[in-house]
Sequence to fold (310 residues):
Amino acid sequence: MNIGYDGKRAFQNKTGLGNYSRSLIMILTRFYPGNQYRLFAPKQTDLFDIRALKNVDAILPENSWYKKFPTLWRRFGMVKEIAKAQLDIYHGISNELPRGIEQLTVKTVVTVHDLIFERFPKTYHFEERFVHRWKIKRACKIADAIIAISEQTKADLVNLYGVNAEKIYICHQSCNPIFEQRITGEEKALVKKKYQLPERYFLFVSSIAPRKNLVVICRAMILLKDKINVPLVVIGDGKKEKAEVKQLMKDNGMEERLLLLNELPASKEGAFTTAADFPAITNRLWHWCIHLYLKDLDCRYWKHCGANYR
Fold:
């Protein structure tokens, strides 16, 4: 089969949608190598290196006007390229389908990740809610099939938008295979030095946005600052919200307990951008979590037996 994808996130997005796009395409090329996969994107970057994938092509704007204004290409020019590619299936992997695709003979699939902006509207700006709502409603209406990444997303589509449940298929997101790797003590030590990590820490992995609740986590740390002296390591970036978090911690004399990895010199290296060092970062954290968990079990066991808390 000849399958097309919205490739913008795969080439440009470093967070959840980008990871989902890259992971999905890599899995399909591995298990279904007989298909041809085409990524329609305004530009191609090294964030997703497809050179070693023989059955994957990038379809980019050729017109100089579209190159200068990629948003226009995605809105008007991309569907012409989709028609030219004679696809069997087009998959919109980030909540939307291109305008005009319903006039083509190609079968369409759209992945809807969540409707958080409907359930928690205060965490989004009005214009963001409007755009997300319009894109998702339209895509669900014209798509031949819909992929929801969870039971909750499917329920929200049915209950909030009236989408036909029989049209929705639940397909959970994958986990990057790099997290299956065994990390040696030497590798962990190198990563610790590279990112200036403390011996123990809390870890926050997400873009810094209101709905992610990093501010709430920091407020909890402030309330417990005299009881728990553990820094917070943040993998993710933001603008207004990141500045708010930094100022909050500074005002409470806790700026040293907030480590933003994207602001360290090492974060500019490829390993941080591609998440290659994430297993070592989480692995160091995991051992500390296991230690705390076992300690808690030990305490509760002796309490149950009537012994002194130790």
